[in-house]
Amino acid sequence: MHTDLVAALDIGGTKIAGALVDGHGGILVRAQRATPAQEDGDTVMRAVEEVLGELAASPLWGRAAALGIGSAGPVDASAGTVSPVNVPGWRGYPLVERARAAAGGLPVRLIGDGVAITAAEHWQGAARGHDNALCMVVSTGVGGGLVLGGRLHPGPTGNAGHIGHISVDLDGDPCPCGSRGCVERVASGPNIARRALAGGWRPGPDGDTSAAAVAAAARAGDPVAVASFERAARALAAGIAATATLVEIDIAVIGGGVGKAGDVLLAPLRKALTDYATLSFVRRLTVVPAQMGTDAGLVGAAAAALGTRANATAAEV
């Protein structure tokens, strides 16, 4: 694998990023396009094809052994399709088949974006060295992924670990997913801001009503802002504890925009975990911030592709 490279795509509602990545997670070539998210499906695919075309123009392309794709979801890896919530033109879109054609027939591995970030954190980041981990992305939504027994565990469709839609409040607000009281409905950035505004928090002169503005207010001691983050922290703690109880993880990694709030979120989260993670086998659970930053999706998609390649090589031996 020392000479192997893989191609990687990170597809979201804002941008489509591509890279050639080496076996150590180093990004050697990059390409990017804005996602034409409101256009029809084939227009979105053309942007993906342009990114792959730019990568294929590199002299290193010939060494690429596979293509890994981390996409906003839901994804269905078993069918090779994607239906990203924020890209309405893609509903059951045959991304794997189209990407394979655009990449000259390379083998393709598709995973959800939460699983991709998990792969990156386990390979190169905060979950490195941990065989059983949950990684969470807390931003506009709440996603995640699992590492179990030292291996990425995407599940049959590539969505395992989607902690945002564990219900933590039986009588809670209806969630757009159709359930009630989901972690995401309490802990996502927009929902933290919504709760703060409903509680009487008011933005500063700039009118910024983002979760980052609520976090700044909480740091300054605003009690409504603090309470909104504390409630988000309790929802996250309940979801993390449920996951740990089910599959015995020993570390939870928190990434995403809301994860960047730091101690405003992590301090009440760690405190709340002591209330929820009470059984002997989950008490040692640690919670840490993500380390991988904006390249996590690309590095994780590459990790998934390299993992497939390594398994194939092992199978051939």
TrEMBL record:
Pfam families: ROK
Top-level division of the source organism's lineage: Bacteria
Stored InterPro entries: ATPase_NBD, ROK, ROK_cs
SUPFAM superfamilies, per database record: Actin-like ATPase domain (SSF53067)
Family membership noted in the UniProt record: Belongs to the ROK (NagC/XylR) family.
Protein name: ROK family protein
Lineage: Bacteria, Bacillati, Actinomycetota, Actinomycetes, Kitasatosporales
